[in-house]
Amino acid sequence: MIPGALPSFGITLFWVGLLVLLPMAALAARPWENGAGLMLRTLSSPRTLAALRLSFGCALVAAAATTLLGLLICWVLDRVRPPGWRLLDGLIDLPFALPTAVAGITLATLYAPTGLIGAPLARLGLPIAGTPLGIVLALMFVGLPFVVRTVLPVLRGLPFELEEVAATLGARPAQVAWRVIVPALLPALLTGFGLAFARGVGEYGSVIFIAGNRPMRSEIAPLLIVIRLSEDDYAGAAGIGLLMLLAASACLLAVTLLRRRLPALRGVR
Amino acid sequence: MTGNGMGVALRNVSCVFGRTPAVRGIDLEVARGEFLALVGPSGAGKTTLLRIIAGLQPGYEGSVRIGVRDVTRVPARDRNIGFAFQNYALFPHMNVAANVAFGLTVRPRATRPGRGEIRDRVEALLQLVQVGDLAGRYPSQLSGGQRQRVSLARALATEPELLLLDEPFGALDPLVRKEIRAWLRGLHNRLGLTSILVTHDQEEALEVADRIAVLRDGRIEQIGTPAMLEDAPASPFVHRFLGETVSLPGCIVGGAIRLGGAWEGTGIVPPRVSAPDGPVLLMARPHTIGLLPASGHAPAAEVAGVSRRGAFLRYRVAPAGYPPESGIEIHVPADRPSIPVGRACRLDFSRAHMFPDRATSSVSDAPGLVTA
After folding, report:
1. Mind listing the pLDDT tens digit for each residue in A123-174?
2. What is the number of structural domains in chain A?
């Protein structure tokens, strides 16, 4: 056996058990305290369903958009390398470090109907704040580093010769991108997408300021949990929480399964 | 060489990286059907030159012709070349068949062969490079030799006018390397290809190439057949680059060559030459130097050490009274009677090449004098 394997495994198990599994078990146990019937009724209320639909829908759209944007940014950071790309590289991580509420307030101020960007857009008939578009925007902001940090190292590890050999074989630049680079990056893109999506579903701080939070229209599920908590409806809050946990886990599982079927990983296993 | 006979022609090609010129003023012609090797130490510009021919190197001057076309301003994708990289550069997410088919499947619809035809062509190519049963494998499941064969099949799929090989055997182990380069040379002949090979391994170049261009500091130091380069190296640099070299100082006095320094009078030298008096460098291969018994009271060299290596005995020979480190190495077939350490002897340096001795070897790029 590898020296130190046993204590390392023990610590890992302890950590995962205490900090991950235990709270989740508590979450799973909580919703049923007022009876399963009441629980299901709360969960199937139109307001809850609308909030869940909004959270998952916006997270999906934002993750997809972030993945495309992230791919482009990675390409620029690694292959174009404009002057100052290192600074740009550092800026990508800012959403990781920034308190999400700060980001939320900033975005809300910018995109408010009176804001710097919000005002001209509102005049064009495209209000951002208080709409799902605003939510998607906030989620893209927090999701971007997840995509860039998973895709960029893989792109860096992709030999430039692949692109050159494709060119010598007659491929046009678009064909090189589409048939050589994107397929080779697909596993990383999928992981980045999954992370950005999972983060987006649960994102709270950066969204509530820009979302407007009108029930049925722009109220996200995490906010509804907070509202239920403030009403001392712990079972209701835990119920929504559990549902989100299950859905997010299912999505991550799906991403993992899909990833393993990709040809780019063929033979690696 | 004009018209149909022309494979590649470079005219005054230069390329500068930042402020250091990588390739300077190169003129080079390769006949159709020829196998040319570009050799030289790292940094000599051989890979840069190959990339210029391929169209992968932006920002060069001069003109490049492939066949009858001037391709100076033509991007790599339209040059109709095949390129093999040292790291193979196989597409990791495609299986072997898809890798080989790539060059055909990216063609515009009008010139793209049908699916069936592509499949047949890929199969034939995989047979040709002797990996017919690996079509469904992925690159990560292949050995180095198999990967290089696949990368060659992929390069040949588009029926290129010119095959460019950048250190294609560099990452292979020695036995596989020897086998695959002999096979490649056979393939070149069978398909009537025009090929340019970049290598830093002079032995490889001597074995496979019709002609060799020795590059140094971005210039062609000498170009010729392997026999020409071996029999008449143009400079000490070429002599040293092509193999193990023994170098002794000497001088010409009144048309006669004499060994210089501590070696004076210790051996036979090339016959009289018509060259101006002055210092010269005598260069030979360890196996072209003869070891003779000492005669009378002439100054002698001394066997300072001997070791067996394969079919040769390696003698270390130094001027009498000098330490072994100041000596030279001489290889004698092991079936000759051995000479004991400490025995006085004379050198047969008559097959040595002679070059004018400039104070610094970096300026010795003028053609040297060669003795019979």
Report:
1. 888 888 888 899 999 999 999 999 999 999 999 999 999 999 999 999 999 9
2. 2
Do A222 and A89 reside in the same domain of the chain?
yes
ipTM (interface pTM)? 0.81
DSSP string computed for B135-196 = TT--GGGS-HHHHHHHHHHHHHTT--SEEEEESTTTTS-HHHHHHHHHHHHHHHHHHT--EE
Nearest CA in chain A to B101: A169
Tell me if B106 and A170 make a contact (CB, 8 A cut-off).
Answer: yes
Put simply, whether A261 touches B (Cβ < 8 Å) is no
| Cβ–Cβ gap B89/A162 under 8 Å | yes
Hey, are the CB atoms on B102 and A267 less than 8 Å from each other? no
Q: What percent of chain B is predicted at pLDDT more than 90?
A: 53
Tell me, yes or no, whether A127 and A255 share the same domain. yes
What is the domain-level CATH number for residue A113? 1.10.3720.10
Q: What share of chain B is helix, strand, coil (3-state, %, to 5)?
A: 30, 35, 40
Nearest CA in chain A to B163: A168
Domains of chain B: residue spans and CATH: 3-236 (3.40.50.300), 246-360 (no CATH)
Distance from CA of B103 to the nearest CA of A (A): 5
Domain that holds residue A23: 1-34
Same domain, A171 and A214: yes
Q: Can you say how many angstroms the Cα of residue B167 is from the centroid of all Cα atoms in its chain? A: 11
Q: What is the CA radius of gyration of chain A?
A: 22
A172 to chain B, any CB pair closer than 8 A? The answer is: yes
Mark whether A21 and A76 lie in a shared domain.
no
**A165 in contact with B at a CB cutoff of 8 Å?**
yes
pTM score, whole prediction? 0.80
Range name among A28-37, A259-268, B111-120, B359-368 with the lowest pLDDT average: B359-368
Same domain, A94 and A19: no
Q: Which helix (H) or strand (E) holds B290?
A: strand B290-293
Mean residue pLDDT of chain B comes to: 88
A269 band by pLDDT with thresholds 50, 70 and 90: very low
A13 and A66 in a single domain? The answer is: no
- Which one of A79, A164, A165 would you mutate to disrupt binding with B, by most B Cβ within 10 Å of its Cβ? A165
- For B93, which of A167, A171, A263 is closest by C-beta distance? A263
Assigned token pair, A195: 């992370």
Spatial distance between the Cα atoms of B287 and B245, rounded to a whole number of angstroms: 10
Query: B302 and B339 in contact (C-beta within 8 Å)?
Result: no
Decide if B91 and A168 are in contact by the 8 Å CB cutoff.
Answer: no
The reply to whether A26 and A136 lie within a common domain is: no
Q: Which residues contact B282 (CB under 8 A, 6 or more apart)?
A: B247, B248, B249, B250, B257, B259, B269, B270, B349, B352, B353, B354
- What Rg value do the Cα atoms of chain B yield, rounded? 25
Nearest chain A residue (CA) to B137: A267
The answer to whether residues A2 and A116 belong to one domain is no
Q: Is the dihedral of CA B61, B63, B65, B71 positive or negative?
A: positive
- Cα B358 to chain centroid distance, Å, stands at 25
| Cβ neighbours around B131 below 10 Å, total | 21
What is the distance in angstroms between the Cα of B262 and the nearest Cα belonging to chain A?
53
